[in-house]
Design brief:
Layout lengths: L5 H19 L2 H18 L4 H28 L8 H4 L3 E9 L2 E6 L2 E7 L11 E8 L2 E4 L1
Parallel strand pairs: 3-5
Antiparallel strand pairs: 1-2, 1-4, 2-3, 4-5
Length: 143
């Protein structure tokens, strides 16, 4: 064990922390791995064991304290660009076949969709413009 320099042990530690990072996708392990790399650099520059451990702790804690809240905030935000059926909500469509509470057809975004009215007592006639309020499966809910 004395034949291997301390910086090599820190690199091994970084690799050991990096493997579960890839498998589990826990970013905290990556931050600890970066701390181990900083400690390896400190060991390579001749820093003592106490300095290496302090560098590891400070870098790891600093990354977790700074990066984790930013990542959590970004993960909680909805994407600015809606895609898929979310992009169709709020769009206007044209009635192709009479739409009422139990069915009908509309032209939405250049495609023909099954549709039903949000208010089951309300009906929309051919040629009328309607607003899509939701998508349930392959059926657009309109009003």
């Amino acid at each position: 064990m004395n034949d291997i320099d301390a910086w090599v042990w820190w690199l091994i530690g970084a690799a050991v922390l990096g493997i579960p990072l890839v498998v589990t996708a826990m970013p905290e392990l990556g931050m600890l791995a970066v701390g181990a790399l900083a400690a390896a650099a400190t060991a390579g520059l001749g820093g003592g064991v106490v300095v290496q451990v302090l560098v590891f702790a400070v870098v790891s804690v600093a990354l977790i304290a700074v990066v984790r809240p930013i990542a959590t905030r970004h993960r909680a935000q909805r994407p600015e660009l809606a895609t898929g059926v979310d992009a169709l909500k709020g769009k206007q469509a044209v009635v192709l076949e009479r739409v009422h509470g139990s069915g009908g057809r509309i032209k939405l975004a250049g495609e023909v969709w099954s549709a039903r009215s949000l208010d089951t007592d309300r009906a929309y006639e051919v040629g009328q413009e309607v607003d899509v309020v939701d998508i349930e499966g392959a059926t657009a809910i309109v009003m």
